[in-house]
């Protein structure tokens, strides 16, 4: 919305700053943070009033959670999505289709997560939407978005899988890339969802990944920087940095209330939405494999669940004391702050490793 102030730059030169993605990214970050800080307490009070007992706590999980987390409201993702949306609408270029595609995936996944949280809270059970129904809706949203991204982009790049560390190696999947891209988006959404199990555990790695992909988006959407780094130039994707900035700001605001002991949980409302957002940005900027590196912590959490389930079904034995893996370390005696901070450190290291692929080509 503020992007239109560029039209006044001929009369008021100061408005020329709205041309710059970096300036608008900073503006979106500040806007997202201020929105959550201002309206966060009101949202928390209303959710606590409406939810009563709060998010159901797993009885088969760490016993300390039954005491420390009981009664804490969920659906805190509404805070993040509100700040993210306001920051994006105010500061992003409204004519950029990538902005609306990624925002549609984010809000679409957020709606799925919201309904899942609603079912759990109202029925006071861990069984929300059935797994098959949820995945079907997620794949429908992600598939439509990836179809739009392939149609919008430049062939054959838009339908190709780019291999990091190589300058010109691409696997052209044709329209099959839509299915692959949808898998990336859905996988990212559910991986972040599995990570969201301790206070502050998911939001900080999400912000780290968002900062990384904000930089990647800016570089991939700039012809000069893309040529210098020898990465694929995808016109228009630089604007996605504004969304990443809005997420960073909203995430910082949410962390203020989610820091231990949490006043509110993100819930599926936030975790599914933010994971879907990261996945769709990775597909848009052609860095799907790099997402697996930068978001390696989310991959580890998802793999730990897959391994645990497969091992138990095939052998009757469990590999981990409990899955996802952060609960395994809880059962081993690590305190919640130890796990959260150490996982944050891992997320930073993985982000640096992922960003190094921009130059190692």
UniProtKB/TrEMBL annotation:
Subcellular localization: Cell membrane; Membrane
Which CDD domains does the UniProt record give? GT_MraY
Keyword terms, alphabetized: Cell cycle, Cell division, Cell membrane, Cell shape, Cell wall biogenesis/degradation, Magnesium, Membrane, Metal-binding, Peptidoglycan synthesis, Transferase, Transmembrane, Transmembrane helix
Q: Cite the EC number.
A: 2.7.8.13
Q: Transmembrane stretches, by residue range?
A: 20-44, 74-92, 98-115, 135-153, 173-194, 201-220, 240-257, 264-283, 289-312, 339-358
Please give the Gene Ontology molecular function terms for this protein.
metal ion binding; phospho-N-acetylmuramoyl-pentapeptide-transferase activity
Recorded catalytic reaction(s): these are: UDP-N-acetyl-alpha-D-muramoyl-L-alanyl-gamma-D-glutamyl-meso-2,6-diaminopimeloyl-D-alanyl-D-alanine + di-trans,octa-cis-undecaprenyl phosphate = di-trans,octa-cis-undecaprenyl diphospho-N-acetyl-alpha-D-muramoyl-L-alanyl-D-glutamyl-meso-2,6-diaminopimeloyl-D-alanyl-D-alanine + UMP
Q: Where along the chain is Mg(2+) bound?
A: 193, 268
Which BP terms from GO are recorded?
Answer: cell division; cell wall organization; peptidoglycan biosynthetic process; regulation of cell shape
UniProt pathway annotation: Cell wall biogenesis; peptidoglycan biosynthesis
Predominant location category: membrane
| Cited Pfam families | Glycos_transf_4 (PF00953), MraY_sig1 (PF10555)
Entry membrane topology = Multi-pass membrane protein
What this protein needs as a cofactor is: Mg(2+)
| GO annotations of cellular component type | plasma membrane
The record's section on PANTHER family has: PHOSPHO-N-ACETYLMURAMOYL-PENTAPEPTIDE-TRANSFERASE, PHOSPHO-N-ACETYLMURAMOYL-PENTAPEPTIDE-TRANSFERASE HOMOLOG
In UniProt terms, what function does this protein have? Catalyzes the initial step of the lipid cycle reactions in the biosynthesis of the cell wall peptidoglycan: transfers peptidoglycan precursor phospho-MurNAc-pentapeptide from UDP-MurNAc-pentapeptide onto the lipid carrier undecaprenyl phosphate, yielding undecaprenyl-pyrophosphoryl-MurNAc-pentapeptide, known as lipid I.
Q: Give the family this protein belongs to, as stated in its UniProt record.
A: Belongs to the glycosyltransferase 4 family. MraY subfamily.
Q: What name goes with this protein? A: Phospho-N-acetylmuramoyl-pentapeptide-transferase
């Amino acid at each position: 919305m503020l992007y239109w102030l560029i039209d006044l730059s001929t009369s008021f030169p100061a408005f020329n700053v709205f041309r710059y993605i970096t300036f608008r990214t900073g503006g979106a970050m500040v806007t997202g943070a201020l929105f959550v800080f201002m309206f966060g307490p009101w949202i928390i009070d209303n959710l606590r009033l409406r939810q009563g007992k709060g998010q159901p706590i797993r009885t088969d999980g760490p016993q300390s959670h039954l005491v420390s987390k009981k009664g804490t409201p969920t659906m805190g993702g509404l805070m993040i999505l509100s700040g993210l949306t306001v920051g994006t609408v105010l500061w992003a270029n409204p004519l950029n289709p990538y902005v609306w595609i990624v925002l549609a995936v984010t809000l679409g996944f957020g709606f799925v997560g919201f309904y899942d949280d609603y079912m759990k809270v109202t029925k006071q059970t861990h069984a929300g939407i059935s797994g098959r129904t949820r995945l079907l809706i997620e794949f429908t949203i992600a598939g439509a978005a990836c179809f739009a991204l392939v149609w919008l982009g430049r062939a054959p790049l838009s339908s190709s899988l780019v291999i990091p560390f190589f300058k010109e190696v691409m696997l052209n999947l044709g329209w099959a890339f839509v299915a692959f891209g949808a898998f990336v988006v859905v996988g990212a959404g559910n991986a972040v969802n599995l990570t969201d199990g301790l206070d502050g555990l998911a939001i900080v790695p999400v912000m780290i990944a968002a900062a990384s992909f904000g930089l990647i988006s800016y570089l991939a959407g700039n012809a000069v920087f893309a040529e210098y780094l020898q990465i694929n130039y995808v016109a228009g994707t630089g604007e996605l940095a504004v969304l990443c900035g809005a997420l960073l700001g909203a995430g910082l605001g949410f962390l203020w209330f989610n820091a231990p002991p949490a006043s509110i949980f993100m819930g599926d409302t936030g975790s599914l939405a933010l994971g879907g957002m990261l996945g769709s940005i990775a597909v848009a900027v052609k860095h799907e494999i790099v997402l697996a590196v930068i978001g390696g912590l989310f991959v580890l959490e998802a793999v730990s669940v897959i391994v645990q389930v497969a091992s138990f079904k095939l052998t009757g034995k469990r590999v981990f004391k409990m899955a996802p893996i952060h609960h395994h370390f809880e059962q081993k005696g690590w305190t919640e702050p130890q796990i959260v901070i150490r996982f944050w450190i891992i997320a930073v290291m993985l982000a640096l490793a992922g960003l190094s692929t921009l130059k190692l080509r």
